[in-house]
Amino acid sequence: MNRLSGRTITALTIFGALPLALLSAVAQDGRRTKLAASDFPDPPIADKRISVHTLIREDVFAGFLAGDKKHLARGEKTIDALLVSRPEEKANLQAWKAGVILYHAVEALDAHKDVEFVSKYKEATEMFDEAAKA
């Protein structure tokens, strides 16, 4: 019988019912199978009916919650593309980008790269401030 950890349930409660596959875990027989970002089609960023949050969140949260660097990189690429194609969403997109930068800051801190942490943390807080002003 497959069981979800408390961390997974908490994440699903907080962030909504994200597809578990995008969190890089398919629980079968007690094993976890990693799925590559290339296993999924690129988000349809040209479709204006889909909010920027929907286009970004699966990849970014797969990066945050499962440590999937390929999905996180794809999420960052999507944010950059949307900043160009949807300038009216600049504040939201800057907040997403700042969150990703903050995640990288925490990774640097975990790796004892204090100078990189301070730099990334400062960049993230400045971007959050910019997003709040937009």
Give the structure's gist in a few sentences:
This protein has about 130 residues and is mainly α. Helices cover about 60% and strands about 5% of the residues. The protein is flat and about 40 Å long.
Fold and architecture overview:
The chain has 134 residues and is mainly alpha-helical. The protein contains five helices and two strands. The protein has helices at 6-15, 52-66, 69-85, 90-110, 114-133, and strands at residues 27-28, 31-32. The protein has a two-stranded antiparallel ribbon. Helix 2 (52-66) runs parallel beside helix 4. The longest helix has 21 residues, at 90-110. The relative contact order is 0.10. The model is unreliable at 4-30 (pLDDT under 50).
Total number of helical segments? Answer: 5
Shape designation = flat
Total strand count, please?
A: 2
Low-confidence sequence ranges = 4-30
**Strand order across the largest sheet:** 1-2
Instruction: Give helix and strand order, one letter per element, not per position.
Output: HEEHHHH
Largest sheet: 2 strands, antiparallel
The chain-level structural class is mainly alpha
Strand content: under 5%
Overall average residue pLDDT: 78
Quaternary assembly: single chain
Radius of gyration, whole Å? 16 Å
